Amino acid sequence: MGKRKIYVLACGGTIAGKAASADDLTGYEAGKTSIGELLDAVPAVSDYAEVKGEQFVNIDSSDMTEALWQALSARIQEVADRDDVDGIVITHGTDTMEETAYYLDLTVHTRKPVVLTGSMRPATAISADGPLNLLEAVQAASDTALGDCGVVIVMNSVIHSARFVEKTDTTHVDTFKGRQMGCLGYMQDGRPMVYQKPLRKHTFSSDLVSPPTLPSVAVVYAYVGLSADDVVSLARGKEGLVMAGLGHGKMPAPVWEALQPLIEEGLVVVRAARAVGGMVTPVPAYEGTVTADSLTPQKAKILLQLALCQTKDLSEIQAFFDAY
């Protein structure tokens, strides 16, 4: 069997970043290296696959937008539907990588591997992690079986599910973790070693699509002193609100009381948690809300947006959160 054909979509980020000196690990500019330069820096990729690529965007991922998500999802779907492509790699900044990965996990429908990667150190740094991450992403995307896992992130030789992964460190290379669910596996000797797969719906089993317009949904972080007026001001005019709640998705009583009129007007409130683990599940005190299960608030926002494109019924929206 010949080499797998891998298509790389470059979106910028630290992996494409440059700094004034080799020991500058934080003062760099992201998105300054082209896809051609990235691939030229890792000639070993050609030992494992036939690689082609394009510069989709070249930005700091803190500047990622929902419109770019929609365009990226559509482009990946076009590439995935081609017979001359076996797997897809997306280079991306780490700040919003987990959100982009989850959006793609829900809206790209394919069994072909879709792998995101990036770096925590710019291309100019001593011990830059980008080249090895890119190589291992190509190696991972070359394994057909990895497509059964949905969209994944491969960094620091670890394979993470888009559903569970989150960035946990501001600067260190082992930033991505999978909370209590753990990772899917590891890269070893040039191939992915997978030990578990996500059971929630994704990619080829997903019924969700990337819409022309995403509903407006806000995320509120609960804290001592949170003003009900501030929450209502932010929520007014929105179709949905995700509360990054205290403990088991709680919120201050004045905030909950102030949200009642908006809920009656059709605002969908999803209760998530600001805690670093655990699930949020239904309780009588918050009847009329949707629960986020184990999704982080930022991922709950994405799922709520896509669910609202299909229904406004709370029980049906809850079913999406129970299935994805």
Automatic annotation (TrEMBL):
Protein origin, superkingdom: Bacteria
Pfam families, A to Z: Asparaginase, Asparaginase_C
Asparaginase/glutaminase C-terminal domain mapped to chain residues: 217-321
SUPFAM superfamilies: Glutaminase/Asparaginase (SSF53774)
Keywords assigned: Hydrolase
Keyword set includes Hydrolase: yes
Start and end residues of each L-asparaginase N-terminal domain: 5-198
Protein name: Asparaginase
